[in-house]
Amino acid sequence: MPPVLAYHLIARRPDAGIAWTTPKQFERQIAWLAEAGYRSLSLSESLQDRQATNAKGVVITFDDGYRALLQYALPILHRYHFRATVFAIAGYVGRANSWDVKFFLPRFAHLDWGELRALLAAGWEVGSHSLNHDYLPSLPEGELRRDLALSRQILEEQLQTPIRHLSLPFGRGNPRVYQTAQEVGYESVSILGGGNFALRPLPSALRLISRRGVYLWDSLASFRQRVEAPPDSPWQYWRQRAISALAMGTVLVKSIKKSVGRFAG
Ligand SMILES: [Zn+2]
Fold it and tell me: What domains does the chain contain, in order, with CATH numbers?
């Protein structure tokens, strides 16, 4: 399996979160990949193409499906003949990201259906990033199943393309989430970080994709290290666990806001 990179937002404007990269940084990283002889594969290609394991392949993924991808990521990738896989939040296509906590900063728009179709036409692949960007392990059984099935169905109907892959909001799941994902028809589930796969009993037909997150503080050297590191190195695992713990702060703040809202009526 080639390295699978996970990006979120490519933007000049700072985001309240930690999951963004500047266009300059992004271009330097992609230029290095091209110079080093990497070629980009869609997630489906990386799972199907047996040669992919031998050739120098890399899979570039974007979570959340922000509209800003068109402005920066698409032209930069195009320049180097790279393609990517974007995971869209089915319930937020064409809307602002009110699912996230923004601390008074401007909200970012998501790609709309026409823009997602344009990315497909440019050779990109689209996957699901759930229906509403909820933290899936905390959803009750019925809601979880509905979320995973409906997000896939909406994306397939609107885009007229098979939706094979799911990326988990906040990069984390549990055996119940994996089982349900497989039952409603996903071929793979992408998480952030990897490691300890043996501790997670997986449905046999499902592939769990361990992704390497790229963040604002990454230098070119740390990026190269990330790409070249063997899969599931302990360093990779613990680093990503620490970052995910930070990102989980958003879940916490969100649930507090929700309870306060409920309390206020
Ligand atoms: Zn996300």
Answer: 4-264 (3.20.20.370)
